[in-house]
Amino acid sequence: MRFPVLVFDIETLTDLKSGAHLYGLDLPEADLEQALTKLRRQEAGMDFQRLPLHEIACIAGLWIDENGAMKLFSFSQEHFSEAEILKKFLSIFDKRHPTLVSWNGSQFDLPVILYRAMYHGLSAPSLFDQGEIDTQKRYNNYQNRYHHRHVDLMDVMAMFNGRNFQKLDDIAHLLGYPGKRGESGYFVPEYVKNQQWLKLTSYCEGDVLNTWLIYLRWLLLKGQLLIEDHRLWIQATIHYLQGQPQQQDFLQVWRERSQQTEFTSLDFPATD
């Protein structure tokens, strides 16, 4: 494992103002989302909006440093504007150059961050440079899918074949991890509208934790972690989460679902 590691995820909602501008709509705000959804269905046959229209409501991450210390964090619209969320996240790359780990980050999270950073006039060469500034990044940058500075687990586990893409929730369940615990990203706009910030950040952080656990299993598969080291990282993660009040539900569901697979059942020994 190349340290530091940053596992991340974003949660978004439709940017109604930008959508109205893009399509030339002059409608009350209450009618805009329905109109944008209808237009999207007409042009693409689905509700999922174009990437530039995804306003970022939350970015969560799990930082693991060279000494194995963990820090789970969230930047959300409870305290910050979208531009401020992006500035705080992008500033991480100005100071450090972590191994970035995501699920579908190459096709969704990073392109959305790119578009929204451009929308707000932000500069992020540490994340988006492909060798124009730092020549070393010509051969190992965050955009190239075959490099290892950014590991998009959905992509690499599908062997870079879109027909093999799987959902984070499904793989987490398969491996005995909590998954989304009955929640869905469709609730994100409601969380923001109703100012349910704890639900928003817990959901986003939950995706980060599932991604981290799958990443550990992937490293074990590739021989980049010995099984003894994998067990140590799992126990370190459990110990860390025991001190995180916001993630006690995640920890409890993990304990329950781990018993459904023989390998993962060892995460929580019977004497624990």
Over all CA atoms, what is the radius of gyration? 19 Å
**Quaternary structure state of the chains depicted:** single chain
- Which CATH-level-2 architecture? 2-Layer Sandwich
Tell me the span between the first and last alpha carbons: 28 Å
Going by helix content, strand content and strand pairing, the class is alpha/beta
- The total beta strand count reads 5
Give the H and E element order: EHHEEHEHHEHHHHHH
The count of helical stretches stands at 11
> pLDDT below 50 for ≥5 consecutive residues: which ranges?
none
CATH uppermost class: Alpha Beta
* Percent helix: 40-55%
Can you give keywords for this protein?
single chain, 272 residues, alpha/beta, Nucleotidyltransferase, domain 5, five-stranded mixed sheet, 13% strand, globular, RNaseH-like_sf, 3'-5'_exonuclease_PolB-like, RNaseH_sf
Describe the structure.
By secondary structure, this protein is an alpha/beta fold. It has a single domain, classed as Ribonuclease H-like superfamily/Ribonuclease H (Nucleotidyltransferase, domain 5, 2-Layer Sandwich), CATH 3.30.420.10. It has 11 helices and 5 strands. A 5-stranded mixed β-sheet has the order 3-2-1-4-5, sandwiched between helices. A hairpin with a 5-residue loop joins strand 2 and strand 3. Helix 7 crosses helix 9. The longest helix has 26 residues. The model has no long low-confidence stretch (mean pLDDT 95). Pfam families: DNA_pol_B_exo2. Keywords: Exonuclease, Hydrolase, Nuclease. InterPro entries: 3'-5'_exonuclease_PolB-like, RNaseH-like_sf, RNaseH_sf. This is Putative 3'-5' exonuclease related to the exonuclease domain of PolB. GO terms for molecular function: exonuclease activity; nucleic acid binding.
